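Each field is set out as follows.
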Amino acid sequence: MKHVHVIGGGLAGSEAAWQLASSGIPVILHEMRPDRQTPAHETADLAELVCSNSFRSDDADYNAVGLLHEEMRRAGSLILAEADRHKVPAGGALAVDRQGFAKGVERALAGHPLITIRREEITALPPEDWDRTILATGPLTSPPLAEAIRSLTGEASLSFFDAIAPIVFKDSIDFSKAWFQSRYDKGTGTDYINLPMDRTQYDSFIDQLLAGEKHMPKDWEGTPYFEGCLPIEVMAERGRETLAYGPMKPVGLTNPHNPAVKPHAIVQLRQDNALGTLFNLVGFQTKLKHAEQTRIFRQIPGLENAEFARLGGMHRNTFLNSPRLLDASLRLKARPALRFAGQITGCEGYVESAAVGLLAGRFTAAERLDQALSRPPLTTALGALLNHITGGAQAETFQPMNINFGLFPEPADERDERGRRIKGRERKKLYAIRARRDLAAWLGTAITDLEPSSNPETMAEAATPPSSDRRD
């Protein structure tokens, strides 16, 4: 059987390759690193996480991304299987040891007998004799390939800044000022490190952020930011209290060092690796120059002597106007033998990128096997996300989007036994119950309950090839 080529070894490309191979289709996975690095990557690992180590909420009942996690587990996702195996404490979120996670994904792909990994940069559109190809080159697509895509589509790719948060060594944090606690004591209640600020300290911090020297390459000027990943100094520019009501909000936390005094703001740090030695500053994506980051962030109480494992940075993301350029199964209308997957399609987030890779792999496998594969129902997280990027959004105003319940159709049965409209959290539960039922029908599997799996690792066990070495 002829190979399917997958270009790009990030989350989407890795997931697409896995879905193809799991369907019995031979795959050649092309990854340009380490021959050509990007401004954001630090290793040559497949599925390297370049920003946060969090896959966000794992609540499959009341959160759309948690529901997407569950749907991907049920669909045999490699990315979710490895995330579950390498998770670290993060309250109600799914966060991973980034190195262990990437190594696990690469080990599984390299160990699959139907997958060949080639370390090479693809600088032009695939030749015709490649037949089916999935382009999952991500937001940092190689410039020559990006230009070839632009020439073929006749569209100028849109782009936006994406900023990376700093990572701190835990043993350099002053715990006479810091404490462990999750907001509202979710999870184990001790998954985050908290650093309090009073009003004077907060005002000084805001002044420093606004005055700090920023890094802004000229060729990126005029590029809009993605609203879901704003640099912290950009948030501060929108109003002095923006951070105190955003990533630095003090609600749901009590300072055990001074419980009678409510902080004006709190900086949270989330565990970044399995050993618990590294913590990242939540919401602190930044375009400050490195020297400025060190100076300003060490003024945060508890970080006076902080040592940084990685300072923040930023890079430019590019994406297609997918509602105009892609068909309902992610094929490029101008050349249907090419499919796109991941962030280049205009989805946003680790999980969403991998989910689109999962769909691209399944659609391509069905074509190769001469099987019919319908789109996942719009009532599922997979279907809602796919619909948004392939026609649900307006092409004229298309922007990257995380999965959210606003992309789902409203439930038909939305009233309780007294005839009152169901609102709030319980309304979200209606979306989740309906999604599980409709996903089961699409996957062709039986479903014995409408509750989330209590053991996601077991659900994703099929994502491990018999020949792979699972040692961490």
User: Anything to note?
Assistant: The CA atoms of residues 206 and 240 lie 7 Å apart.
